[in-house]
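Ops channel
N.P.: pipeline sanity check, posting one input/output pair.
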């Protein structure tokens, strides 16, 4: 039996001892504003690369894995490279991407673990950062800390950039003296959260593009092609079959009532956005979404991954369980589930078991709640939470892969049928006329 894959310090699955190539952009610490040098290095993980570069006296600007031929082939067919690590930083105007935050956490944790003071570590990261907006944010962090603020308070002032799981875990790290470990936990969590989000987006990307393309084709047929056929039919006084009359009628509505149809569509979207923002109706909408066939089950599994991963990360970092439940409840991104978790937290506060209380809500999978109860009984709740997160992430991955395989042919057949129906409806009168029907 082959040896199982090891998990590196940044959450990347790699075969035991296998080194991957990395492209490194660095500056000399002796000349911090000097030219950027490109180095190539092989290592098991990105953290190992950063540690080597720092020991050699470099300021790290960016580090990214170099794609090999297999990675390019997987990317070309829309697959996600298994074991992908942290990629290079990407920024768009005044924005800090998740990748940049992960890279920042890995860099800062590595520097502090190496014994470099926080202010000096922030300065090194600031000098090597390529995003002008993020550089300004880091400069503000350094200024606040140098004026006497704690790292947590400085992050709280930039809460639009740093998610509040950052603020809570950094606060725990400062309190317990385990800031590097907490920064590593943040990087682990954000990498995992980004991975599951990427899988969901990737699964629906192709069906979404296909739907847009067919919608555009239908609009073109209805606005430009069908009216020309309708004009010919009217000129020739041809009797029209019911199907043709229906298609011509829809075309007339789209062409002549387009502003009204557009206003109705915009009104529906605005109403849904308003209801989503309203706490009263958001719970009902989220509950309805969870009860939908197929997609509701997917939403619950994704919520389980987010809840278990965040709760396990928080507990492992030293956050008290009640505070950890409050934070994890918000991270599931579903108001109904968040309300259920708040009720569970109140029950846990009074001495009830977490697994039993979650199971009593009859929303979360029984397999998850039973594992949580086992983890509580054995005193290994954090480990069982990570086990649950890994299990359901794999389940989501499998589900999405099967759903994508199923959706593509169904969509192609359905949309081909719709377009085919429109085309056939235009030729039916001509066929009937030619056959004397």
């Amino acid at each position: 039996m082959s040896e199982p894959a090891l998990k590196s310090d940044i959450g990347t699955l790699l075969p035991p001892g296998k080194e991957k190539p990395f492209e490194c952009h660095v500056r000399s610490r002796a000349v911090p504003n000097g030219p950027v040098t490109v180095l190539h290095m092989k290592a098991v993980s990105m953290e190992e690369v950063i540690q080597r570069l720092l020991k050699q006296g470099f300021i790290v600007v960016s580090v990214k894995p170099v794609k090999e031929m297999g990675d390019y082939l997987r990317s070309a067919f829309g697959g996600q490279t298994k074991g992908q690590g942290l990629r290079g930083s990407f920024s768009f105007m005044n924005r800090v991407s998740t990748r940049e935050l992960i890279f920042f956490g890995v860099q800062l944790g590595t520097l502090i673990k190496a014994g470099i003071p926080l202010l000096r570590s922030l300065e090194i990261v600031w000098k090597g950062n390529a995003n002008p907006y993020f550089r300004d944010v880091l400069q503000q962090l350094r200024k606040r800390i140098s004026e006497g603020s704690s790292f947590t308070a400085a992050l709280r002032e930039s809460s639009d950039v740093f998610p509040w799981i950052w603020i809570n875990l950094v606060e725990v790290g400062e309190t317990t003296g385990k800031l590097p470990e907490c920064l590593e936990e943040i990087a682990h969590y954000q990498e995992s959260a980004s991975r599951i989000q990427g899988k969901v987006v990737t699964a629906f990307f192709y069906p979404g593009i296909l739907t847009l393309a067919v919608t555009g084709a239908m609009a073109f047929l209805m606005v430009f092609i069908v009216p020309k056929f309708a004009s010919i039919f009217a000129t020739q006084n041809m009797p029209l079959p019911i199907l043709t009359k229906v298609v011509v009628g829809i075309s007339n509505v789209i062409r002549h009532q387009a502003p009204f149809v557009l206003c109705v569509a915009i009104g529906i979207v605005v109403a849904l956005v308003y209801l989503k923002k309203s706490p009263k109706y958001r719970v009902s909408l989220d509950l309805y979404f969870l009860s939908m066939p197929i997609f509701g089950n997917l939403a619950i599994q994704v919520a389980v991954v987010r809840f278990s991963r965040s709760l396990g990360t928080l507990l492992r970092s030293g956050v008290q369980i009640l505070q950890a439940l409050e934070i994890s409840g918000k991270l599931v991104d579903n108001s109904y589930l968040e309300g259920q978790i708040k009720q569970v937290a109140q029950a846990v506060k009074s001495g009830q078991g977490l697994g039993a209380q979650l199971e009593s809500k009859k929303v979360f999978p029984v397999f998850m709640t039973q594992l949580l109860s086992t983890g509580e009984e054995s005193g290994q709740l954090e480990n069982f939470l990570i086990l649950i997160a890994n299990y359901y992430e794999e389940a989501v991955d499998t589900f999405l892969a099967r759903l994508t395989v199923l959706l593509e042919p169904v969509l192609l057949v359905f949309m081909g049928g719709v377009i085919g129906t429109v085309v056939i409806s235009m030729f039916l009168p001509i066929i009937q006329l030619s056959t004397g029907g």
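N.P.: looks fine end to end. The beta strands are 6-7, 13-14, 20-28, 37-43, 58-65.
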